Amino acid sequence: MLDFAKLRAITPEDRERMEREREERLIAEDKARRAEWSKKTLTATLQGDVESRFTRTGDRVWYLRCQQADGKTVFSVYYVPEYMSSEEQYQQLGTLLPGSTLELAGYWKKRSWQNQQGQTVDSWEFMTQTYTVKQAIAA
Fold first, then answer.
1. SS3 49
2. Which domains does the chain show, CATH number per domain?
3. Which of 2, 50, 85, 116 is deepest in the core (most CB within 10 A)?
């Protein structure tokens, strides 16, 4: 049996409602995934300016160089959520000033590559899923 209700024209109100529901679903899925992947938590002090770049696929990535209380340097990578607007991103970047204390939640990932001498180099990066500014520095 055919469902002729699906053939009716979609009103602008219905289209807006469906788009809003889709966006809410995507945000909920992203937050659930980030919570699931947040296996470790660390507290560190931001050492320099945050580097904001794009990947080859168009994702925005923030690179954070931090230092833990024991003096160890942590290189952290944060993939900015797709649903975050440019204004929200700039506002968030304004809170990430050198010297700020951050609490990062995420997981460790090993990177391997060949240097110019052809030797394999390994390093560990912290893949930040969520972060909280614990102690902000005034701009």
1. coil
2. 38-135 (2.40.50.140)
3. 50
SS3 57: coil
Between CA 40 and CA 77 the distance in angstroms is 14
pLDDT digits 0-9 by tens, 107-131: 999 999 899 999 999 999 999 999 9
pTM of the model: 0.83
Tokens of 53: 């770049």
Instruction: Give the closest residue to 134 by CA, choosing from 108, 97, 106.
Output: 97
3 state SS of 5: helix
The residues, any chain, with a CB within 8 Å of residue 40's CB and separated by 6 or more, are: 105, 106, 107, 108, 126
d(CA 86, CA 68): 30
Q: Strands of the chain (E only): list them.
A: 40-46, 51-54, 60-68, 73-79, 101-114, 120-135
Q: Residue for token digits 């204004």? A: 87
